[in-house]
């Protein structure tokens, strides 16, 4: 394919030791040569090498900057096009000035995600891989990063392509039948088609089962810490934050602007809801009352319900138990270092079959147990043990569900002894829906919209 030459600053905005201006397209190296003076012309050097030199304002021969320029020739590049990467001293002004120079020589400013989009359009990666790139940028924990990386490697794409192939074989056997109607093998054909789609259906189910875990790894588990005043909510929050191997907040430059707080609990990213309230000791419950805190809990996927073991249960505790009903809840029985005044039997009676972890945040006890309980609640085998393809992307999940529905229709059509070409229509639809995951049947509009979510320069 033929595209114009694009350029953008690929490093995050702000100050840094270096900034990189990326240029991709047929003109990339030539544009570089109009600005660069070094030992050799960039057009003369070998691919995948880096060169020291200076950039000049063309015509005026004014030295602008000291640079290192990488020359990367198609097709072994990120975009599969000729590329140069200009490394300049960090700083907003410097990088911007170089970008302006490059643009003045005929490159066009890249749209967000356009480099990755070119990798897709030039056939280097498929759509699910491109989405994986975006997930890698946004990953909050190592584990989330690994899931995204597998997607970038094309593991999910490979599986989807295999499933499509299977459906296609089924469809093909029907085509043969339609082309030779005198060869009346309807029953045999249908049998074969059904076997194929059963197998595909089972694998789609397995993939969908990973969806919840995948989404948690990707977006974090929305977690609310609730409990009466003074039971230890802030202490719990601080403990989680301190203990977390990585506290990750959203990376600037991605399109999600809201800054949320994440803690890493055994590889599971918890997205803490309403932590500001807890921080100011004016927590959710204190501030807005139990009734309204129900509202605030709506988005919670996990509730850590904290009690003070040193005090008898109160009406307010009971109200909080009611508020947490229907949510995944873990009870944190805190202040175990003090005399026990809370009636465990009463608690069990009120709350039912919910895991209870006893802790003392003062003496730093029970914290590992709590973290174990949290991660095992959502990843029974432990996050690290899982080596399968996770489906984490909402778009992929929706398409898998659609394909599953189409297959269900094909099955019932087959069972109702409908003509085999009717069944074929449903199977073909499933085939197309799966194709949309990897971008083979995705409409242009969708593709544009997806890539526009990337940050500039990616
Ligand atoms: P919150 O109001 O629920 O956020 O409770 P805080 O975390 O602010 O704790 C209230 C008080 O209880 C503070 O003085 C803490 O130091 C104390 N506290 C927290 N956890 C424990 C514990 O496990 N044992 C004891 N003895 N005191 C604790
Ligand atoms: Zn507090």
Automatic annotation (TrEMBL):
<feature type="binding site">
    <location>
        <begin position="274"/>
        <end position="277"/>
    </location>
    <ligand>
        <name>GTP</name>
    </ligand>
</feature>
<dbReference type="InterPro" id="IPR005225">
    <property type="entry name" value="Small_GTP-bd"/>
</dbReference>
<dbReference type="InterPro" id="IPR027417">
    <property type="entry name" value="P-loop_NTPase"/>
</dbReference>
<feature type="binding site">
    <location>
        <position position="234"/>
    </location>
    <ligand>
        <name>Mg(2+)</name>
    </ligand>
</feature>
<feature type="binding site">
    <location>
        <position position="230"/>
    </location>
    <ligand>
        <name>K(+)</name>
    </ligand>
</feature>
<feature type="binding site">
    <location>
        <position position="255"/>
    </location>
    <ligand>
        <name>Mg(2+)</name>
    </ligand>
</feature>
<dbReference type="Pfam" id="PF01926">
    <property type="entry name" value="MMR_HSR1"/>
</dbReference>
<comment type="subunit">
    <text>Homodimer. Heterotetramer of two MnmE and two MnmG subunits.</text>
</comment>
<comment type="function">
    <text>Exhibits a very high intrinsic GTPase hydrolysis rate. Involved in the addition of a carboxymethylaminomethyl (cmnm) group at the wobble position (U34) of certain tRNAs, forming tRNA-cmnm(5)s(2)U34.</text>
</comment>
<feature type="binding site">
    <location>
        <begin position="230"/>
        <end position="235"/>
    </location>
    <ligand>
        <name>GTP</name>
    </ligand>
</feature>
<protein>
    <recommendedName>
        <fullName>tRNA modification GTPase MnmE</fullName>
        <ecNumber>3.6.-.-</ecNumber>
    </recommendedName>
</protein>
<dbReference type="InterPro" id="IPR006073">
    <property type="entry name" value="GTP-bd"/>
</dbReference>
<feature type="binding site">
    <location>
        <position position="249"/>
    </location>
    <ligand>
        <name>K(+)</name>
    </ligand>
</feature>
<keyword id="KW-0819">tRNA processing</keyword>
<feature type="binding site">
    <location>
        <position position="124"/>
    </location>
    <ligand>
        <name>(6S)-5-formyl-5,6,7,8-tetrahydrofolate</name>
    </ligand>
</feature>
<keyword id="KW-0460">Magnesium</keyword>
<dbReference type="InterPro" id="IPR025867">
    <property type="entry name" value="MnmE_helical"/>
</dbReference>
<dbReference type="InterPro" id="IPR027266">
    <property type="entry name" value="TrmE/GcvT-like"/>
</dbReference>
<feature type="binding site">
    <location>
        <position position="458"/>
    </location>
    <ligand>
        <name>(6S)-5-formyl-5,6,7,8-tetrahydrofolate</name>
    </ligand>
</feature>
<feature type="binding site">
    <location>
        <begin position="249"/>
        <end position="255"/>
    </location>
    <ligand>
        <name>GTP</name>
    </ligand>
</feature>
<dbReference type="Pfam" id="PF12631">
    <property type="entry name" value="MnmE_helical"/>
</dbReference>
<keyword id="KW-0378">Hydrolase</keyword>
<dbReference type="InterPro" id="IPR004520">
    <property type="entry name" value="GTPase_MnmE"/>
</dbReference>
<feature type="binding site">
    <location>
        <position position="254"/>
    </location>
    <ligand>
        <name>K(+)</name>
    </ligand>
</feature>
<keyword id="KW-0479">Metal-binding</keyword>
<dbReference type="InterPro" id="IPR027368">
    <property type="entry name" value="MnmE_dom2"/>
</dbReference>
<dbReference type="InterPro" id="IPR018948">
    <property type="entry name" value="GTP-bd_TrmE_N"/>
</dbReference>
<feature type="binding site">
    <location>
        <position position="22"/>
    </location>
    <ligand>
        <name>(6S)-5-formyl-5,6,7,8-tetrahydrofolate</name>
    </ligand>
</feature>
<keyword id="KW-0630">Potassium</keyword>
<dbReference type="GO" id="GO:0016787">
    <property type="term" value="F:hydrolase activity"/>
</dbReference>
<keyword id="KW-0963">Cytoplasm</keyword>
<keyword id="KW-0547">Nucleotide-binding</keyword>
<keyword id="KW-0342">GTP-binding</keyword>
<feature type="binding site">
    <location>
        <position position="85"/>
    </location>
    <ligand>
        <name>(6S)-5-formyl-5,6,7,8-tetrahydrofolate</name>
    </ligand>
</feature>
<dbReference type="InterPro" id="IPR031168">
    <property type="entry name" value="G_TrmE"/>
</dbReference>
<comment type="similarity">
    <text>Belongs to the TRAFAC class TrmE-Era-EngA-EngB-Septin-like GTPase superfamily. TrmE GTPase family.</text>
</comment>
<feature type="domain" description="TrmE-type G">
    <location>
        <begin position="220"/>
        <end position="379"/>
    </location>
</feature>
<feature type="binding site">
    <location>
        <position position="251"/>
    </location>
    <ligand>
        <name>K(+)</name>
    </ligand>
</feature>
<dbReference type="Pfam" id="PF10396">
    <property type="entry name" value="TrmE_N"/>
</dbReference>
